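Inverse folding, one chain.
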């Protein structure tokens, strides 16, 4: 078993349950915090506090959509969707990203611009704003720690550095909560700064600038999440480590002469479709070929648990159409992998002799 496969095998069985807990905690936090921010915004007249209330509304809507994603993506495959409903998670997470932009960023930017233009917002009861911001930081921080804990746990299980895992993760639910909660904590700091400068200077421009910055922050988060889920919806390849391990395992089989082409697509969280075109040894009978394909299918599923569907197609290595398609898609990557594999195989043969 490869190191990556072993790490994947150690991944918690209740990953879906962990995602649900993370989203539910974030949802409860945002509902409570949103009400507090709205009351504080109305009492103090602070546009930054109202922007933060819109921020919480956006996050609450997002968590609701993420719960929908978790529920609908877990349905089993059927005749209408033979590869399952895993991509539902990506779709609803994309809608959640749009929700952050439309609900939170747009309102915050509008409030900020209006306050900057007028510059006359009167601020009252600033202590209410400070109290609500402190309490919100405590509640949001609890949700953020849960999301951080899960991302760290999953990155360790996958044997991947934290930032790289966060960038390449195929679980948009936890990633969305982590980014949203991180933005929420930054937004609270911006709101506190805006309220404080307004109180010190008597100018509502600072409150407006804080609101504008919160809107820009939300737009940035929406862009990052939207781009990630767009890539997964279109059909992103699996991580290179998994593809390389699958290539090596197939190429190591005694019945295989050369792996001609290999394609993967993420079809859901921890779910990958693999298609391999293989030049088998010419002396194999049809029965030998069938048995080899079945055995490789079983072995690949054992060492690489994320593989959900596997298709192995026998092809001649010198087929010009296949070669042209592979070169266009991968350049010399597969040729380099094949050369590395042949080099290792040659060393092994010499060592055995």
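Residues assigned per position:
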């Amino acid at each position: 078993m490869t190191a990556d496969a072993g790490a994947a095998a150690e991944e918690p069985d209740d990953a879906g349950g962990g995602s649900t807990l993370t989203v539910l905690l974030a949802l409860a936090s945002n509902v409570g915090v949103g009400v507090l921010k709205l009351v504080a915004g109305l009492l103090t007249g602070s546009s930054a506090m109202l922007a933060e209330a819109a921020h919480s509304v956006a996050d609450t809507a997002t968590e609701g959509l993420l719960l929908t994603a978790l529920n609908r993506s877990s349905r089993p495959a059927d005749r209408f969707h033979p590869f399952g409903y895993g991509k539902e998670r990506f779709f609803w997470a994309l809608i959640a990203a749009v929700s952050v932009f439309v609900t939170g960023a747009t309102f915050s930017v509008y409030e900020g611009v209006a306050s900057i233009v007028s510059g006359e917002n009167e601020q009252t009861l600033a202590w209410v704003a400070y109290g609500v911001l402190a309490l919100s930081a405590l509640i949001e921080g609890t949700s953020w720690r849960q999301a951080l804990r899960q991302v760290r746990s999953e990155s360790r299980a996958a044997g991947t550095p934290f930032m790289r895992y966060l960038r390449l993760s195929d679980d948009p639910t936890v990633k969305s909560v982590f980014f949203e909660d991180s933005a929420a904590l930054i937004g609270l700091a911006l709101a506190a700064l805006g309220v404080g400068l307004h109180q010190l200077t008597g100018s509502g421009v600072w409150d407006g600038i804080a609101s504008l910055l919160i809107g820009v922050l939300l737009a940035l988060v929406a862009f990052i999440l939207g781009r990630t889920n767009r890539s997964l919806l279109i059909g992103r390849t699996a991580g290179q480590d998994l593809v390389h391990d699958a290539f090596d395992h197939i190429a190591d089989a005694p019945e295989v002469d050369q792996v001609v082409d290999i394609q993967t697509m993420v079809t859901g969280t921890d779910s990958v479709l693999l298609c391999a075109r293989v030049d088998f040894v010419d002396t194999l009978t049809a029965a030998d070929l069938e048995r080899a394909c079945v055995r490789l299918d079983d072995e690949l599923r054992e060492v690489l648990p994320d593989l959900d569907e596997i298709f192995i197609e026998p092809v001649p290595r010198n087929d010009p159409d296949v070669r042209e398609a592979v070169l266009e898609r991968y350049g010399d990557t597969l040729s380099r992998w094949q050369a590395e594999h042949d080099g290792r195989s040659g060393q092994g043969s010499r060592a055995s002799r």
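The chain is about 75% helix and 10% strand. Confidence is low (pLDDT under 50) at residues 1-15, 348-353.
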